[in-house]
Amino acid sequence: MNIPAVVTPNQRQQELRAKVLDEKFDAERRAIGERVAVMFRWIFLAVLGALINLTPITSIQAKDTVDIVLGVWAVMAGVVTVLLFRGFKPGKQFSLTTMVLDILFAVGLVYLSDGFNSPYFLALFLSVITNAVRFGAIASVASAVTIAFIYLFVGGTFTPTTLSSDPNSRLTAFGVVFLFLVVALATGYMTRELERERRQAVRRAAEADQLREVSSDISGETNIKDVFAVVVAHALQMSGSTSASMVLASPDGFAVVASSTSQPLSDGVSPDGLDDSQLAKVARSGEASFSEDKSAMVVPMASNEGITALLSLKRPGRAFSNQDLFAVDALSGSSAVAMANAVRYHRSTQEATTDVLTGLYNVRELRRRLDAVFARQDKATMSVSLLLIDFDHFKSVNDELGHQHGDLVLQMGARIARNAARAQDVVARYGGDELAILAVDTSGVGAQRLAYRIVDAVHAAAVATAPGKALTFSVGVATYPEDALGALELIAAADQALYLAKREGKDRACTFPQLVTELELADGNLMTMLAEAGPQVVVAAAHAVDHRAAAAQGHSSRVAAIAEAIARAAGLPGSDLEDLRTAAYLHDVGHMVMSDAQDLEVPGHAEEGEKIVAGSHFPLVISAAVRHHHERWDGQGKPDGTAGEEIPKLARILAVAEGYEAMTAGRGCERVTPLRALELVKAGAGSEFDPVLVEALARAVVEGSLEPGLPSTALPAVAGATVRIAVPA
Fold first, then answer.
1. Top CATH class, 354-518
2. Does domain 522-729 have CATH number 1.20.1250.20?
3. Where in 486-602 does DSSP place strands (E)?
4. 255 pLDDT exceeds 90?
5. Using CA atoms, how far apart are residues 603 and 637, in angstroms rounded to an integer?
6. pLDDT tens digits, residue range 43-71?
């Protein structure tokens, strides 16, 4: 899962807070610099005042002038002191102004006394020291160089001629300049260290703030991808990495759960590969590890029940430091509980959805995925295929070599199927020795190719089963919408195609249309085939019946879906639902043995259907439903004129379902909307249909449970076709 590093609202908020903090610290630094400058200024003023008034180092003529300069300087110092005492926040312009004034006052004192022979030149150190505090080391050195230049060439005591001819003057000048530079470097170094500590404090504050946000973001999450995506995004930002990946290490290997990059990846470009040896080392030791050039590091983040979460970070061209490791460790500590919970939830979810032996999805998860596919909004335009795979002669493996070897064969067969399928296909263990593959957006042709590929793959693997024998597969293939109307029918169609593969000798793949074609060509053998296969071919038989005419396409499947919805709404016991589905699929099977079977609702087809169903050894309740599905509630129906509750209940349900299906499909009549069809069926309640079952149909329509039973387009009209529908009086 690759997550491009997009600037989120939280990140923008963090950047804004960091900027505000930085500006706040800069302002505080300037304020501290001004306070330090005021302190040194008053010290210098006191010392200079004492020198001018208590010692005779200045001439009497210059004394008054120097006192005036000191007085004005003191006034400036007093104004600055009052401003700072009142909470004034000095800006850069204010600090530059006080710096320039300090230099001017100091230079003025020097020029008004004995030049640089006067001790007043010490006042210039005030600018050197305070500049370091206010503006940093570079400003301090720059002011020291400026003052040294003034001292050497502008001061008046030393001239280029004096410096070149008098060694003592050169030594004195060098000593003073050296002193200026030493003071500048010393104060600059101290200032730089203070600045470094300040920036580290800002960084730690930002990291602490970020860690609080991580904890807040993932505190209520249990989905492992969501939790790890948040952690990876923050790790990428905190460490300045170019890529970050969260990997789950387990006995089965490594799995990348979330990844992110500092720059969005171009199409077709993948993030850098992971170093499996480094991941394995960290998983074993539980300690962080750097690559040789320290441009990559792997850090253990959380562990639970044999699964370890590892964070892999990469920063090509820049080595990671211990400080980066400490930051990631802090991130690990703040998110450890949430990550451990996510890992635990992931493990429990895997156990709930995965078959322990094969590592494939279990049948419950397969059905959930299948239902989700058929709940999609675009299901009318999608194509879904289902493959059922049976391990041939598997019972003999357990009987001859034991269950342990049988388990090994199951595991190897599951691996073959998983490798042959596409990455996006759902591969599940469907039963004891059966697998299933749900392939979404795969046509019937594509599914057939996949089935052939699986059969070839198991041949190539040559998995030993019994002595001298190798594992083979029988595969059944069915596809929506060609072979099924809904999820349950798709499973039944794939299962019946698998029946054909096994009946034809196993070690092969067969499709549902192949079975339908065989039933269409059965002619007089239809009863024999139904008797032999029973429920294993009823859906295929229904499709074979519906293939007799264009207007009948999908008719039996829709009737079965509508009948089941009515039965559920009417509270039909679950034990009777399977019989109802079978009767719905076979209710028109009599057409298969009639010469004019291409017409709709040929008279006598119900009686012929009863003979076929009864002769195929289906339960009596099913054959009775097939015979009486054209009876009317008022006794005016066929073939026996049975009325009311004397009509078998399953037949009454089929009558309502078939009438509603014909009207909503436009089969032999004008197609109408579901609500209009319901009105017409209600009009026939008490005369043509069982009123109780009509009300059940109404509930099913209101609840929307009939949608799978409705066609997407109207069926073509058939000349001369007549279909019983209720017409309002």
1. alpha beta
2. no
3. 508-511
4. no
5. 12
6. 878 877 777 776 665 555 567 777 888 88
Report the C-alpha gap between 508 and 451 in whole angstroms: 9
Q: Residue 315 in contact with residue 239, Cβ under 8 Å?
A: yes
* DSSP 3-state percent helix, strand, coil across the chain (nearest 5): 60, 10, 25
What angle do helix axes 167-218 and 9-54 make, rounded to 10 degrees?
150
CB-based contact 157:172 (threshold 8 Å): no
Query: What is the chain's alpha carbon radius of gyration, rounded to the nearest angstrom?
Result: 45
pLDDT in tens, 96-136: 788 788 777 777 777 676 655 566 666 667 667 666 666 66
Query: Which helix (H) or strand (E) segment is 436 a member of?
Result: strand 434-440
**Is residue 208 scored above 70 in pLDDT?**
no
Residues 6 or more apart whose CB falls under 8 angstroms from that of 498 comprise 388, 389, 390, 474, 475, 476, 510
Dihedral (CA of 407, 409, 414, 419) sign: positive
What is the Cα–Cα distance from 43 to 54, expressed in whole angstroms?
16
Distance set, CA 437 to CA 299, 384, 417, 430, 458 (Å): 37, 11, 8, 9, 15
152 secondary structure, DSSP code: I
How many whole angstroms separate alpha carbon 125 and alpha carbon 677? 102
Q: What is the pLDDT of residue 461?
A: 92
Q: Is 577 exposed, middle or buried (0-12, 13-18, 19+ CB in 10 A)?
A: middle
Cβ burial of 524 (10 Å; 0-12, 13-18, 19+) is exposed
- Whether pTM > 0.90 for this model: the answer is no
Q: What's the pLDDT tens digit per position in 360-392?
A: 999 999 999 999 998 888 887 889 999 999 999
421, 437 contact by CB (below 8 A): yes
- Show me where the domains of the chain are located: 9-197, 224-353, 354-518, 522-729
Tokens 């597969």 belong to residue: 473
**What's CA 244's distance to the chain center, in Å?**
16
Counting Cα atoms < 13 Å in the Cβ hemisphere of 223 gives 6
Q: Look over the chain and give the mean of its residue pLDDT values, rounded to a whole number.
A: 78
Say which residues have a Cβ less than 8 Å from residue 212's Cβ, sequence separation at least 6. Answer: 334
Q: Which residues, other chains included, contact 70 with Cβ-Cβ below 8 Å and sequence gap of 6+?
A: 45, 48, 49, 52, 109
- In angstroms, the CA 577 to CA 564 distance is 7
Which one-letter amino acid corresponds to residue 257? Answer: V
Q: With helix as H, strand as E and coil as C, how does 241-309 read? A: CCEEEEEEEECCEEEEEEEEECCCCCCCCCCCCCCHHHHHHHHHHCCCEECCCCCEEEEEEEEECCEEE
Q: What is the pLDDT of residue 287?
A: 85
Euclidean distance between CA atoms 503 and 644, whole angstroms? 44
Q: Could you tell me which residues come within 8 angstroms of residue 190 by beta carbon, excluding any fewer than 6 positions away?
A: 132
Strand partners, 689: 685
User: What does the longest C-alpha to C-alpha distance in the chain come to?
Assistant: 146
Q: How far is CA 22 from CA 371, 398, 569, 600, in A?
A: 55, 73, 69, 84
DSSP at 361 = B
Residue 469 DSSP code: -
Give the model's pLDDT for residue 37: 77
The yes or no reply on domain 224-353 and CATH 3.40.640.10 is no
